[in-house]
């Protein structure tokens, strides 16, 4: 999402808008601003397919809480619906998807 630009007859206002856009657009385009936390996701040993609820191709994921030791890694390409994770041990996690 980018800030809109409204053309004005006032050159100062146009300059301000240009400055605001140059400073705010990089922060607004950060994928972490459009993220979701999946709470209490139970992972079994092996492959686990999880609906990430983003309704777009995700760009990444971060485990924000884990309740048991387990090695977890993605084992399928990102897509618009699911996140496929492999777990070395059964555990419950919270996942930030973005």
Sheet with the most strands?
Answer: 3 strands, antiparallel
As a percent range, the share of helical residues equals 10-25%
Task: Report mean pLDDT, rounded to a whole number.
Answer: 93
- Strands, count: 6
Q: What is the number of helical segments per DSSP (H or I, 4+ residues)? A: 1
As residue ranges, the low-confidence spans are: none
State the end-to-end distance: 14 Å
Briefly note the structural class of the backbone.
alpha+beta
- Estimate the global geometry from the Cα principal axes: elongated
| Strand composition percent | 35-45%
What's the topology here?
Layout: H1 11-28, E1 36-43, E2 46-51, E3 61-66, E4 72-74, E5 82-87, E6 91-97
Antiparallel strand pairs: 1-6, 2-5, 3-6, 4-5
What does this structure look like?
The structure is a single chain. The chain has 98 residues and is α+β, with helices and mostly antiparallel strands. It has a domain at 34-97. Helices cover 18% and strands 37% of the residues. Strands 1-6-3 form a three-stranded antiparallel sheet, with no helix packed on it. A hairpin with a 7-residue loop joins strand 4 and strand 5. The two termini are 14 Å apart. 9% of the residues are buried. The model has no long low-confidence stretch (mean pLDDT 93).
Quick overview of this protein structure:
The protein has 98 residues and is of the alpha+beta class. Helix content is 18%, strand content 37%. It has a domain at 34-97.
Q: Can you give keywords for this protein?
A:
single chain, 98 residues, alpha+beta, three-stranded antiparallel beta sheet, 1 helix, 18% helix
């Amino acid at each position: 999402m980018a800030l809109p630009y409204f053309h004005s007859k006032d050159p100062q206002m146009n300059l301000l808008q240009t400055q605001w856009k140059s400073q705010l657009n990089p922060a607004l385009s950060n994928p972490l601003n459009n993220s979701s936390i999946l709470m209490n996701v139970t992972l079994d040993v092996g492959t686990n397919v999880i609906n990430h609820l983003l309704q777009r191709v995700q760009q990444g994921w971060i485990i924000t809480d884990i309740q048991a030791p387990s090695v977890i890694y993605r084992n399928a390409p990102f897509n618009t619906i699911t996140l496929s994770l492999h777990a070395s041990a059964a555990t419950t996690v919270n996942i930030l998807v973005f």
